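Forwarding the complex inputs:
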Amino acid sequence: MAVWNYLESLMPQLVLIVFALVLPALDYLFKDKRVLALVSLVPLVSLVILLVGWLFLDVWAMSTSMIDLIEVNAFSGLFMLVFLFVGIVVVLGSPEFIRTDRNQGEYYSLILLAITGMTIVAESTDLIALFVGLEIAGISSFALSGFRKTEKRSAEAATKYFIIGGFSSALTLFAITLIYGIAGTTRIVGIEPILAGNPAGIDAEPMLILASVLLMAGLGFKIAMVPFHMWAPDVYEGAPTPISGLLAAASKKMGFAALFKIFLIGMILTKTDWEVAIAALAIITMTVGNLIAVSQTNIKRMLAYSSIAQAGYILIVLPVGTQYALAGGLLHILTHAFMKSGAFMVVAAMGAIAIGERLDGFKGLSKRSPFLALTMTLFLLSLAGIPPLAGFASKFVLFSSSVYASIDPGPSWLVWLAVAGVLNSALSLYYYARVIKYMYMEKGPETTVKVPPILTVAILFAVVMVVGIGLFPDPFVEACRTAAEAFAGLPSGWP
Amino acid sequence: MDVLQYAWLIPVFPFIAFILIALMPKRTLGWEDGWGYGIAGAGGALALSFLVIWEVMNGNTLTEDAPRTTWLIIGGYEVTFGIWIDQLAALMLLVVSIVGTLVVVYSGGYMHAEGETRRRYYAEIMLFISVMYGLVIADNYLQMFIFWELVGLCSYLLIGFWYQKPSAASAAKRAFIVTRVGDIMFMAGIILLFKYVGNLDFAVLFDVNSGAAGAPTVPSDILILSTALIFGGAIGKSAQFPLHEWLPDAMEGPTTVSALIHAATMVKAGVYLTARTYPLLVQTPESLLFAAVIGGVTALIAATCALAANDIKRVLAYSTISQLGYMILGLGAGGYLVYHLQNPSGYTAATFHLMNHAFFKALLFLCAGSVIHAVGTNDMRLMGGLRKHMKITSTTMLIGALAIAGVPPLSGFWSKDEVLAAVYHAGDLDPIFLLLWVLGIATAFMTAFYMFRMWFMTFAGKARSDYHAHESPRIMTIPLIILAGLAITSGFALFAGDGFKAFMELPIEEHVLAGHESAMDVAVEIFTDPLTYVSLALAVVGILLAYRMYYMPGFDRSVFARGTAGTLQRALENRWYISKFYDDFACKVWYGFSLVCDAFDRRVIDGAVNGFSYLGASIGGIIRKAQSGNVQRYASLIILGIVILLAFLLFVVPWGGW
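Prediction (whole assembly, two chains):
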């Protein structure tokens, strides 16, 4: 039965939506708002168990049947796992942060809805479904970043985010229309064969280039690709800190899921048209992100620019375009989700114990809270790509992919992407190490601080994953490899 | 249940203790800030070690079929962690478990006055013991190297335990940096082997060039180079000439740490590595000769340095270097015997000496610790007459001194004699071993002399300073008594059961000889050999000389301050100026080079970086201007970006011929 097929494939989304609808009601029933966080953890954790059992432990198989609009496969499963992990960390980090706020039911509800949208993007096989997913996630996060209506900064961030977001959605939609105009289909896998057949004998190339550029702009907004990144630091700074974590670690990854699907499946035929542009944008993005991060004095802005730089690294995947590169990109997406959300949770903890968001606040932190200082150090070193942490493993696969691809299948200039990535990593160490220096070498206030237990759990979870993936990368590389194999049109590139 | 399968748990016990001591809240630490956890961790490892040793003594080993887990897959190579329990590993387990546990027990008294910092002490010492176990049971060179480096790290931490003292901090750095020279060689050696074999597992490497089916082959010159490089690691870790100067300085740590480093962990790792590499070493007589010469020279030089030292711990430190030289010499000569005659006597002798030395050296150090604990100084010139106050310490230390001097029937006699006999025997193959034997005999004489010089200066005669000595608490004297018992009896392992020689099978299957000598044969061989009496006579003469010079009154020691003797005396006091050479020459040259590097770094690299960062900051500044917070501006920038991208893709890319 067709309806049942739809429902079965959409089950994870349905679960999330049901909980999202129930949560605002629960808000009226419980005085202790931490219950809401607990309730919203239920679907997240149970879906994680479902996915881990499927992807890593082989306990059960998921129905990977394809219906018209979505497909559940290893690729979507991996992305879904990332979104859910980030969701868990964000939810764990929230109760302390929004302790005094009203409408907490909506807050958690919106988080679940945002994640629902993201999972739809990861599973979509159709441009329309993809767009719907983007919008669900987008609109939920607009509302979330303006959650503190009375706070000027928060409201301003939400307004900016909404205007630029709406603008970018329009660009994306325009690109989708152009593609439909040329190919006559919105099915992502259906675009390439039609393009190969050169429909109607017209010269579609300029139109396709326009569509590619519009997609780069529209989705580049999601991943904060330079020059479409302007909103990101303002919004990250203004939004509630856990939501900044959600935007940096999950929403951005949704943009990548969409980019991978459209460019590496739908538009793979015209790769020679767009690869140079995206390669250039990748290098510009990582460099600009790192350069501006150096001069930041607000930790959240610094992390925002560092996120932009990390997006630049992941963009390498598109011009390289091998399964190995895609696996590296997926692994980096996975590890980045932990490193970045972990770092944001440390910042949230600092906020919760009234230290604030200025870099100066980190001075002497090792004396005040050895736990926060140590975990922050691990997150930052991992972001910089120092072994044996997760960031090293994923950067290694990612950068080496461009080296291998420059030999086969080429072109040879791809190697410069790795060079740029490595140089940028070195540059980024400067501002990461500065925070570590502040924490361990500089003197600050002597009073010890107490980290709220629930935040401790969130941070611990992230740190275990960062160290665990760093020490035992193999199962994760394998999972990413399986996921990348869903992109059958790509050359393997596996060494 | 097969105990050997669970040998990997041995390092886990002390490691858990380390974690608990380091992380548990202060109030739960119990006795002596973590001593209890330390005892439990060390005791657990001791118990399991003994079970494992028992299994090995019953003839079971676990080598090639041992369980291993894959850690990483790099290219086609699986990096595995596994265990490798053979006789050699069992011997080391015995040494590390007994000495380690007794040192932890003894620390309960020795470190009592340290207060807050004891937590750090016990945490570090548990980690030290744990990683040493890890090194001992490693089944591949990479795993061994990881633990090797961790051992180095722990020794750095513990030597610099009193890091507030500048001398301790610099001694720690020195130990770390000097052994690092050896570590690099070790690493180069295993990288070289990996390049040719593509594997670092002992199971594969020990078959190199064996001719068996599927056995890897390595060109002989490469094998010589790699074994020599691996031995280079042992030179650094086991403080062999010319990298031996860090060990006397390492006395800056607590005496318990010195005991552990000298008897069971750090420096024994180098000898263990050499013995572990034996299946490869015995194929390369050149490396063996190199090792033997290094060992012989080290034994002599270190012994001479000990003659004039006045710091009780420095005397012991030089004696350790000297004894390690013996072991390396024995291994080198023994390998030669295996290579030419299929005779494993040098290997068994050196490993036997390793075990005996561990017990009597731990004893001597802990005795010295007891003395220092009582008197509050390391300088023997300020001691004297301590025998009256410290009955147990003086007696046990006398036993230790007799053992190391080689007086029968104490343990040192048997193993030293075996080593020297093997070296003499190798003299038939290459006359250079006869020269090395002479060095060894001279060392034996000097050893007897300086050990009794130390004992007489410390315990005999009258007090030379105003001290208030007292015997140490029982928690410290009991380990001394146990170790003294071991120092007396461990030599008889040569005769127990089938004898030590039969137990210490060579790790090379083809070389296992049928028909071992019986215990009786060994004894007869020792006592009918005239060389035995030569070394024995020299030891006795050394002791008597020390007695005459440092015990009996009326000997004018000022003759040593004049003329040639004075020059020699000063040279000895300055450790043959080797340390000075490092400080004055090597360090200056290096410092000069460093200054050049520094200038290059400041001017060129920093200049470039600063220029780059200035450029970056200015570009950042320009870009930041765009980051105005103005939404209209953001939107127009997006449009601008789209236009530029379009222009680029439509006009520049096709034209540029990408």
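The first helix of chain B runs from residue 9 to 23.
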